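hi! just following up on the protien thing from before. the input was this:
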Amino acid sequence: RVQLEESGGGAVPSGGSLRLSCVTSGFYFSRYCMTWFRQVPGQEREGVVGIDSDGSTSYADSVKGRFTISQDNTKNTLYLQMNSLEPEDTAMYYCAAAARPVCEAYYEDGGVDFFDDMDYWGKGTLVTISS
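and the predicted 3d structure came back as:
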């Protein structure tokens, strides 16, 4: 049975840091691409950062330089280190996995389009940033 379980969310002031974890089981973690998404109630879900099966990473412009994605294949766990948090980062954060090497495509201007047709999703962890 496939499981993805996020943790590490919480409430911190602007400028603070959080580290999210996504513990997975039931699939070949190292063969999947994975993405962190976030969603604010009433708004569309957006891809934030992804890591391909070869370890390549991609970041939305809004988090570039502040967020870092990593994974530990020995623990089947995905991480998201979030620094310099801003109130605009407040959202429910989800990890998701897809059985393909790549989870995103790039626009001509260098922007990233994170595919949301993922195979597996976690239930999310809430991040709240106060100003």
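The CA atoms of residues 96 and 121 lie 4 Å apart.
The mean pLDDT is 96.
cheers
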